[in-house]
Amino acid sequence: MADFVQGLDPGKLVLAGTVLSFVMSPFSAPAYNLPIFLFGTIAQENSDAVQSLRVFTGCLTVSILYDLIWMFTNEQSGFIRLLSIMLFLLKLPTAAVFLSTLRRGGTQFMLGTDVNSATVWSMPGGFTSTSRDGYQTVDDEPRAAPVRVPSVQPARTASTAAPQPTTLQPGAYQNA
Predict the structure, then answer these.
(1) What is the DSSP string of the chain?
(2) How does residue 52 score in pLDDT terms, banded at 50, 70 and 90?
(3) pLDDT at residue 11, as a whole number
């Protein structure tokens, strides 16, 4: 069974599901099938987007159950019922192909998040970081020494002392 699933082309399966969903969309059919397969078309094109493949696989798998419920609770004409059953049967190998693709890529498909794993969150330069390697300087040149700006000498009177020259730090505000 695994060899059969690996031999299937996920692109052609998603394209067939998209076309079948599009053909059924103006009639009495589930409205969620076309958006799911359109999303699958985009997700399978970008093989680096593992999260998108997981979302598509999850939506497709859940929609199999929804299709069963929808077919038993809603009336359809004979031809549209046949197309709905064909789409339902097409979803089974499509979900199997995408599940095996995720497993081959090393991704496990889980419902929810794994809160039992030992996840340690650290921020570069934060308290758990051992060095400041996460921070980079803005300019590559070494900083120059502070600039001394001579201040304007007001007229001296006997009661005022001479003003002290001010030293400005780089980036400091200066009064004019």
Answers:
(1) -HHHHHTS-HHHHHHHHHHHHHHHTTSSS-TTHHHHHHHHHHHHH-TT-HHHHHHHHHHHHHHHHHHHHHHHHS---HHHHHHHHHHHHHHHHHHHHHHHHHHHTT----SS---SS------TTSTT-SSSTT---S-SSPPPPPPEEPPP-PPP-TTSPPPPPEEPPTT-----
(2) confident
(3) 87
- Higher-pLDDT residue of 33 and 165 is 33
Q: How far is CA 48 from CA 11, 51, 91, in A?
A: 15, 9, 23
Rg (CA), the chain: 33
pTM summary value: 0.58
Residue 38 near residue 22, CB atoms below 8 Å: no
